[in-house]
Prior knowledge:
The protein is mainly beta. The protein has helices at about 10-15, 35-45; strands at about 70-75, 80-85, 95, 100-105, 110-115, 120-125, 130-135, 140-145, 150-155, 160-165, 175-180. β10 (about 160-165) and β11 form a beta hairpin.
Amino acid sequence: MTLVTPGLAPPSAVASACVLDVDDLPALPGRELTSTELRAWVREVAARPELWERYVRHDGADERGSRHFVSLYRDADIDVWLLCWNLEDDTGWHDHDTSSGAVAVTRGAVTESRPRLGGTPVVQTVRAGRTLAFGPDHIHRMGGAVDGSVSIHAYSPPLWRMGQYSISDSGVMRRWSVSYADELRPLDG
Length: 189
Ligand SMILES: [Fe+2]
């Protein structure tokens, strides 16, 4: 099996490179899942480290300065990722276009921030054993709160396009449409 760091790889290459089969995973309904269903499902995946633990890596950025993430599974209804976080890792502001999502933190802790116009962002720390879930209306950024953190992410329908945002010092927000295979990075420093 191959560790996958998608970077700028074309989506088709990433889609074919997921490391688990549907038979490895908790049962799926054969349709798109709601955010509530995703939360329960990703919690089951998190509770089975034999599925994903071998892909965890925190030994620093590769030559592109990329975070380490692995496509665990993808089909017509869901895609599932393993993300590894150190303190310097930061997705920048983004949305998930039409997808709902759920995140289970399995090691360490991550921060989730939501932008607030005219105010400071709403920030929460999500520690190991906790989950968060959201719909397609959700805008956030995530980062490592502890070196060596790990989280499992599931999205339905599968991510295809995402919105990446910058917010200027004067509060002006701009959105760029990016491929799900592009690594999310801060656009506003
Ligand atoms: Fe996200």
